[in-house]
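Researcher: Can you fold this with FE2/S2 (inorganic) cluster in place?
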Amino acid sequence: MTRATPWCMLAFRMERAATVATKDYERPEITVHWDSSRCIHTAICLRALPEVFDVDRRPWIDVEAASPEAVADAVMRCPTGALRFTAAALTEPAPPSTAMRPVRGGPMVVRGDVQIVDAEGNLIARETRVTLCRCGNSGNQPFCDNSHRRAGFDEPEIRAPRTAEAPDDICAPQPGFRGDT
Ligand code: SF4
Ligand code: FES
């Protein structure tokens, strides 16, 4: 996938809208948005810019404590999309390609030009960073909400591929697919 085809991306059909619980932290040059429903406490932001992101302080984000460029750079390191920003002079570029990386015992980390649609196909989010639930326990599907920790999610055993002559030899048809994404 390339920047020339920005809408060629992943799409997820959801039965209900994801939770959004966003707080804003503002200064004239930049506003940081934090969606607590998407934060799984990776602490990447805390390590990237500790003078701005400090969980021992309230508010925990001091957007004045570094340059707008440094704040934006730290925000873009957040793998879940819990942190985003809006700024007149800064934009977050979409990655030139889309990559998915499973975290062992945790979510699927996706970076790219990703659109998420509801069950009717309506676009509800277009983002560059998301972490998707692999354990099935998230209350904020399709996003990970850290429920994999509470559920003790572990990786399934790696099994040898089965031989099959046709899809029905593998499993019954999957319900809920409409054939286009
Ligand atoms: S980097 Fe994102 S997910 Fe990780 S603690 Fe910071 S806001 Fe939360
Ligand atoms: S993988 Fe994190 S809640 Fe499912």
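Model: Folded with FE2/S2 (inorganic) cluster in place. The domain at 22-86 is CATH 3.30.70.20 (Alpha-Beta Plaits).
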